[in-house]
């Protein structure tokens, strides 16, 4: 039996050709040595799909029901964790953490999860089963106690991990100037039982919360190398001395230039550096505070406005800073912004004081003590009390601006002075300015760790060791993010080749390519450009599907990836790896 298709056609009187197809079910047999055909049915009324199916069936093909042919048993998000794991392996992160074992697998899963899904540990545990992380790393059934044990194990290896990172990024050809950047930040704590949780100056604006402090050590490009956790009331100078001790004693580095902001590397800390043994060569690069700059600009001082007539930076000397170089810089854009901000804050402060002045004038508020108490609560809210002259009696209140003080401060708007012990033959003046401005890379790291990518805060752990382990996990995740952002710059809004400014004092500018990407939201290949977080979300749509072939009783299950989109394929190409089927 077979399906025969008979084609008939004719041309109408109008010249139009018409074709008719007739599909017949026929039986073919021989009779008396001749081949004969018997028509069993006319199939022309059936849909073309059914006719084709019958034709193939009569030719010997076997068909099964749709639900018995193939079924997707389970589909798990895979692309995002596969990409992060590929980057981790390219950086040698698994071996960096320690020898293979259960603790290392859990610690690695925690770090990868912090990049992809930054949540609490309990939320992360349930999330593992919903991605390929759980099955491929064998952490699906991990208990809370096992997670904490892995965190404790990771913390015991912190010094060894960071020492390897320091040798990789703070020495050799990767860092010829042997510079290390250090900065301190804070995050608030949930709970009341952690010994590190203390009230202090909150950089997050959480004044009613206990907090911890943590200092981040990076290379000049902002690549995280080490982190240290301190009680919440630790000052910048104390943290800086600990950073020096870690670099010198833990990492064994005897030649290093420490770069920090003006509150970090104070004159007292510089004296501590000078007290180090002669075989140690620890330099510094920081900025002077405002009173120190004002002293240099006083009558007869080396800092005069005429220095900036032809250029925006000048190297000066002063006996108060022996064996140091002072590079004075003036940024006109910064000067304009500071003048605007000061005027706005003065206006805001006077607006807060105006109701009190009116109350005194109308007799609704009297008594010098009562008036002073009201004024004292708000006069320095915007740090402008130094520019206001307040005169109080029992019946009067007068608030006037200290114009001389305002003018003196305005004269130094946009001016900053960098101090360093690095010799001129090792680093010229422009290089000193660039090195100090590299602290902006650490600020980028803080945004990544605390806000944009890793969500370190708030911290829920109550044991000191667990808090330190949590911060260490976030630092190692930031190390991954730093490299991922670099690798995926063509797919994101990151400036791939920011122009090098001719004047190091001027503000950084975006390249033409980056500006075009931002405006068009597409790259040069007309592919969509995404933020880093949105790119990870897009990669998550690349799933791994367990497909069962055959009837439901069949045990043949084949893991199969969805077809990658052009962006997903490009993301893995930029990491130098094909899309992997598994994480291991």
Give a written overview of the molecule.
The chain is an alpha+beta fold and 584 residues long. Among the domains are: 2-63, no CATH class; 94-156, no CATH class; 160-291 and 437-485, 2-Layer Sandwich (Nucleotidyltransferase, domain 5); 334-410, no CATH class. 41% of the residues lie in helices and 20% in strands. It has helices at 48-58, 66-69, 79-90, 93-97, 102-116, 121-128, 132-137, 144-156, 158-169, 236-250, 267-274, 290-297, 332-361, 368-378, 403-410, 429-437, 439-452, 464-487, 512-520, 532-540, 566-574; strands at residues 2-11, 17-31, 34-42, 70-77, 179-188, 211-218, 224-231, 255-259, 281-287, 313-316, 325-330, 388-392, 397-401, 415-420, 543-549, 557-561. The strands form 4 sheets. An 8-stranded mixed beta sheet has the order 7-6-5-8-9-14-11-10, sandwiched between helices. Strands 1-2-3 form a 3-stranded antiparallel beta sheet. A 3-stranded antiparallel beta sheet has the order 4-15-16. Helix 3 (79-90) packs across helix 5. 31% of the residues are buried. The mean pLDDT is 91.
Looking across the biggest beta sheet, what order are the strands in? 7-6-5-8-9-14-11-10
Strand content: 15-25%
- End-to-end Cα distance, whole Å, is 53 Å
Mean pLDDT: 91
| Class from secondary-structure proportions | alpha+beta
CATH topology of the domain at 160-291 and 437-485: Nucleotidyltransferase, domain 5
- The CATH homology group name of the domain at 160-291 and 437-485: Ribonuclease H-like superfamily/Ribonuclease H
CATH class of the domain at 160-291 and 437-485: Alpha Beta
Spatial extent as radius of gyration: 35 Å
